[in-house]
Design goal:
A hairpin with a 3-residue loop joins strand 10 and strand 11. The protein is elongated. The protein has two domains: 3-57 and 89-138; 155-429, no CATH class. Helices cover 24% and strands 37% of the residues. It has helices at 3-8, 11-16, 22-32, 36-61, 85-111, 220-227, 303-308, 312-318, 322-328, and strands spanning 117-122, 133-138, 155-170, 174-176, 181-183, 189-195, 198-200, 204-206, 208-217, 238-252, 256-269, 279-281, 286-292, 295-301, 351-352, 355-359, 361-366, 375-377, 380-383, 387-396, 400-410, 415-429. Strands 3, 4, 5, 15, 16, 18, 19, 20, 21 and 22 form a ten-stranded antiparallel beta sheet that branches. Strands 6, 7, 8, 9, 10, 11, 12, 13, 14 and 17 form a ten-stranded antiparallel beta sheet that branches. The chain has nine helices and 22 strands.
């Protein structure tokens, strides 16, 4: 029963007059113990009912009083009950009492720690048999009852996006500090940021950067119903989208890495029965125009693969399919040697601490002549006197995905780490 239903059906009055069925009575009792307004209405109505019954009882008792004729004095004189000051004195007294309760008693009651009560309902055999009382009996508890957190089932939004970040530590300490980052609160909403042409010393620069994060309930009308407490939050669905965009990136001097455009995107939905949120790579995700001192790299991404297998459970199930291992196993390192140990013939996933390691990269190749001495190992390009370039890294858990389109481990003569176009999304129910 909602509060509006209780008001429309005069539930408090019917409850006190015993005009409810047993089922309606139980439903209303469950409601008013959670609804402060209905509980107050019930207390007021109970007081009025008791007062009315007391008044009728007093009128009946008057019939048993034996009338006594008083003898008046021949000389009229003033009496206390005829004083004109009496009504004003009574009004002043009532005002003092009301002010005391409003300014002192009621606030102190509201600030007091809650007391656990056990509801007790006393029902008469009939409406005329006596009054109906609803009271609370203090529950025996050796420990004080304290307020607790709201443990209702609710959706916890999460979405993060960063255009670039990191730190160069040699030959000089250079922090990659940019304002192009976005993040969501636990209730969702929207966050976005932009940055124009930016330089970090003479080592790193970019032309423009932008990020965005948005988390919303899919049906606004249902969210309105939620604000009226007419639907449970667990019956709603949500969507979360995160994006990171970076253009004209330049890193290093000799050699120098340049990338014309990086765009990373993730789109997720709230979990259904499995408890895993489906999280898909956005179709607009791209790595375009990568080059090392003008030697171009063509990076092909396996976006459809991670759109089809948008939960970790789907990937785990597919890993048992030999055809999947042959066609897509490289994106999950299923056939890669680890620590010098080759993969088994069936392949295997790489797991650590509940995280599955993957890459969005399907292939990397030179568009022309390769850079002298550079090597390509699936999603990693190693460049002499620069370091290693990791493209399209993807970390997958039961509840989240984190995509980093570009990560640098810089070697001689410069040392440090840089990441660019990174997004993360997940969303879970609190219980």
């Amino acid at each position: 029963m909602t509060h509006q239903e209780a008001v429309n059906t005069l539930a408090a009055e019917r409850y006190l007059l015993d005009e409810m069925s047993d089922e309606d009575r139980l439903t209303f009792e469950e409601h008013y113990f959670d609804c402060e307004t209905c509980a107050d209405n019930l207390r007021v109505a109970t007081a009025m009912l008791e007062g009315a019954r007391a008044g009728f009882a007093g009128r009946s008792a008057m019939g048993n009083v034996v009338p006594i004729t008083a003898t008046r004095s021949a000389t009229p004189h003033a009496t206390w009950y005829r004083s004109l000051a009496l009504p004003w004195a009574a009004a002043a007294a009532l005002a003092l009492v009301a002010g005391y309760e409003t300014l002192w008693v009621v606030p102190s009651l509201r600030q007091a720690s809650p007391l656990a009560l056990v509801p007790v309902t006393l029902r008469p055999a009939s409406r005329a048999a006596g009054r109906v009382s609803v009271c609370g009996v203090a529950a025996l508890n050796l420990y004080p009852v304290t307020p607790t957190m709201d443990l209702r089932r609710r959706f916890i939004f999460r979405g993060n996006a960063a255009a670039i970040g990191g730190r160069i530590v040699r030959p000089h300490d250079l922090m990659i500090d940019t304002s192009a980052a976005s993040s969501l609160t636990v209730v969702g909403g929207r966050s976005h940021a932009k940055a124009g042409d930016t330089r970090f010393g003479d080592f790193i620069s970019f032309g423009a950067a932008s990020t965005s994060a948005e988390g919303v309930f899919d049906d606004v009308k249902q969210q309105i119903e939620l604000t009226h407490h007419r639907v449970a939050e667990g019956s709603l669905t949500t969507s979360t989208r995160v994006n990171a965009d970076l253009t004209q990136l330049s890193v290093g001097n000799k050699p120098r890495l340049t990338v014309k455009h990086l765009h990373a995107a993730l789109a997720s939905k709230s979990p259904a029965g499995s408890g895993e949120p489906p999280i898909a790579i956005g179709s607009e995700t791209v790595i375009d125009g990568a080059a090392i001192d003008g030697h171009g790299l063509v990076v092909e991404l396996a976006v459809p693969l991670f759109q089809k297998y948008d939960t970790r459970s789907k990937l785990l199930a597919a890993a048992d399919d030999p055809q999947f291992v042959r066609d897509s196993g490289d994106c999950l390192f299923m056939k890669s040697a680890v620590g010098g140990t080759p993969a088994p013939p069936t392949g295997r996933l790489l797991h650590a601490c509940g995280t599955t390691y993957a890459t969005l990269v399907k292939s990397i190749k030179w568009s022309g002549d390769p850079y002298p001495g550079a090597t390509i190992d699936h999603h990693v390009v190693t460049v002499p006197n620069f370091g290693q370039i990791f493209f399209g890294e993807l970390l997958i858990t039961d509840l989240s995905r984190r995509l980093t389109l570009l990560r640098l481990e810089l070697g001689s003569p410069d040392g440090g780490t840089v990441a660019a176009a990174e997004v993360e999304s997940n969303g879970t129910w609190s219980s």
